[in-house]
């Protein structure tokens, strides 16, 4: 089984929204038609996006940290949005685990968006069908593209390499190793959706140096140094 | 959640339609075994037409919920997994049964083909259709309720109360309508339907207040900590990623003040339960032909508020991600 997914490294995401704009650019000009914007230059612009970058402040001043948090469909291994779809428009691809919507079958009932705890499905206001991240299915499966370009647009756009892409079921893939060795975690694990996308937590490169690391207690130098005696009883004073 | 009027009307109208059918068949059952006065076929036929009208109106309202109503026929496909799909199948089945039930009564095709127990229980086609209709009506209540109750992270809805509330409240308004219909016709079934309406209303009062109490002390499993996976007691969203609105901020928020919510809750608690019960009681004492109609109308109004509150009360976990514009 293959399960394609993204792994997002929160250590290096700088919140530049390049993934958001490149996603919009690629997918709005794709085969599935535009991702509609309404009132784009007005006071309340709104539109369809597959990907958002949010910002959170952790802690209280002065010990705070800003975390930029890219959020898109997590391509759950047990997606709650799929079984609820009355038409079968919402489905999970057998061959690579990508969760997709058939825009020709969708009736726009919005039930799948209710059944997604992550809020990553958005109804297109003009086409009136549910839209969501496709993991750029038209790029990653396009055999005419050079292999290095068979990646989602957001991954190619990220300037800090915060987005890793690959098969999380292959234990030797870059993403699997990243999840395994850098503490990759899933969002809202309480619902058992088993998201395929993972996030790599912030890691601080603190070294923990104890006194013993600097000064070995069993240092042979300290063992073999010349003891200075100051009149106390030594072995030499014992009469045999 | 954002309370959509299409779904509010759908659930309340078909609830009343199913309830009215249950009331008509209960009346038939009682008259078959001579517990209440026998009614002419036209009583059931017009009643069924009324029930069918409510079911059709509900179905019509549901189309306004769809982005692509012309594709609605596709919604019957996934009945194996989707309660919405099951509802889409059971609702027309209910309509068909109500239609034939009314038709058979209107045409007078009520010759019993089998008689049990020395003339005590004659069974005709409408009796069989009625029994079938009861099963389908219950299945429809379950399907409608489970659409909401099956979404496990909408914790306000994810409880058996959701299904029984739909069942009792729909039945109550249907029997209330049957009482109003009888009062309008001037037959003497007002007391019979009214009594059952009061019983169903009281059952609904029990389960609905139980669900209100349950939801008042509900502790949501998802928090901002689990939503973004960062273990810290103090996390604050600084930007949701866009400066205006999106589907996520429209569909999952009711955008009403807590005071409005409380007002609607109190309004439905008054309109659905004590007011119709008092009016039916008064109608029984005064033998009024109009008070049962008022009882139904006010209870239905209350049920609209009840359903509005049902949606507004539910807190979707995705809302955790959409707290702050910038």
UniProtKB/TrEMBL annotation, chain A:
InterPro entries: 4Fe4S_Fe-S-bd, 4Fe4S_Fe_S_CS, ET_IronSulfur_Cluster-Binding. Residues 4-34, 64-95, 97-126 form the 4Fe-4S ferredoxin-type domain. GO terms for molecular function: 4 iron, 4 sulfur cluster binding; metal ion binding. It holds the Pfam family Fer4_11. Keywords: 4Fe-4S, Iron, Iron-sulfur, Metal-binding. This is Ferredoxin. The lineage of its organism: Bacteria, Pseudomonadati, Pseudomonadota, Gammaproteobacteria, Chromatiales.
UniProtKB/TrEMBL annotation, chain B:
The chain crosses the membrane at residues 43-67, 88-107, 127-151, 163-184, 190-210, 263-285, 291-310. InterPro entries: DmsC (IPR007059). GO terms for biological process: anaerobic electron transport chain. Keywords: Membrane, Transmembrane, Transmembrane helix. Pfam families: DmsC. One of its GO terms (cellular component) is dimethyl sulfoxide reductase complex. One of its GO terms (molecular function) is dimethyl sulfoxide reductase activity. The keyword Nucleotide-binding does not apply. It comes from the Bacteria. This is DMSO reductase. It comes from Halochromatium glycolicum. The lineage of its organism: Bacteria, Pseudomonadati, Pseudomonadota, Gammaproteobacteria, Chromatiales.
């Amino acid at each position: 089984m293959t399960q394609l997914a993204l792994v997002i490294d929160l250590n290096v995401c700088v919140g530049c929204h390049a993934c958001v704009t490149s996603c919009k650019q690629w997918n709005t000009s794709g085969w599935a038609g535009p991702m509609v914007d309404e009132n784009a230059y007005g006071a309340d612009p709104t539109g369809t996006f597959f990907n958002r970058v949010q910002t959170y402040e952790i802690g209280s001043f002065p010990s705070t940290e800003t975390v930029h948090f890219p959020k898109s469909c997590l391509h759950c291994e047990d997606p709650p949005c799929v079984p609820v779809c009355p038409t079968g428009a919402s489905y999970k691809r057998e061959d690579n685990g990508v969760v997709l919507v058939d825009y020709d079958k969708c009736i726009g009932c919005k039930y799948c968006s209710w059944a997604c705890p992550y809020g990553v499905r958005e109804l297109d206001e003009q086409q009136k069908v549910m839209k969501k991240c496709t993991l750029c299915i038209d790029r990653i499966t396009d055999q005419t593209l050079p292999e290095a370009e068979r990646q989602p647009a957001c991954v190619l756009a990220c300037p800090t390499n915060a987005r890793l892409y690959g098969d999380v079921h292959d234990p030797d893939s870059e993403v699997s190793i990243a999840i395994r060795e850098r503490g990759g975690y899933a969002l809202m694990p309480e619902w058992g959706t088993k998201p395929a996308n993972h996030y790599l937590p912030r890691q601080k490169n603190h070294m923990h140096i104890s006194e013993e690391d600097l000064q070995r207690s069993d240092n042979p130098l300290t063992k073999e140094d010349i003891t200075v005696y100051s009149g106390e009883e030594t072995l030499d004073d014992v009469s045999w | 959640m954002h309370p959509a009027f299409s779904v509010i009307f759908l659930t309340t109208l078909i609830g009343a339609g199913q309830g009215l059918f249950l009331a008509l068949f209960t009346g038939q059952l009682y008259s078959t075994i001579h517990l209440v006065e026998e009614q002419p076929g036209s009583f059931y036929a017009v009643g069924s037409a009324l029930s069918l009208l409510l079911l059709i109106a509900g179905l019509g309202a549901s189309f306004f919920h769809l982005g692509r109503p012309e594709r609605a026929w596709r919604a019957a496909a996934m009945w194996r997994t989707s309660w919405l799909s099951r509802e889409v199948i059971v609702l027309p089945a209910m309509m068909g049964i109500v239609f034939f039930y009314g038709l058979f009564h209107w045409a007078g095709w009520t010759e019993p083909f089998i008689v049990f127990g020395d003339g005590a229980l004659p069974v005709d086609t409408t009796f069989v259709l009625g029994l079938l209709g009861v099963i389908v009506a219950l299945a429809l209540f379950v399907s409608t309720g489970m659409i909401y109750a099956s979404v496990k992270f909408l914790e306000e809805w994810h409880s058996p109360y959701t299904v029984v509330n739909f069942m009792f409240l729909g039945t109550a308004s249907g029997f209330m309508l049957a009482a109003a219909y009888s009062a309008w016709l001037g037959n003497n079934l007002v007391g019979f339907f009214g009594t059952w309406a009061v019983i169903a209303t009281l059952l609904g009062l029990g389960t609905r207040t139980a669900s209100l109490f349950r939801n008042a002390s509900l502790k949501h499993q998802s928090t901002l900590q689990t939503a973004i996976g960062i273990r810290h007691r103090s996390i604050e969203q600084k930007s949701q990623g866009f400066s205006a609105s999106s589907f996520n901020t429209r569909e999952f928020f009711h955008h009403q003040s807590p005071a409005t919510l409380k007002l609607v809750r109190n309004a439905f608690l008054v309109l659905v339960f004590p007011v119709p019960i008092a009016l039916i009681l008064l109608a029984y004492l005064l033998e009024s032909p109009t008070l049962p109609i008022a009882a139904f109308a006010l209870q239905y109004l209350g049920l609209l508020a009840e359903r509005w509150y049902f949606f507004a009360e539910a807190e979707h976990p995705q809302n955790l991600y959409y707290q702050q514009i910038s």
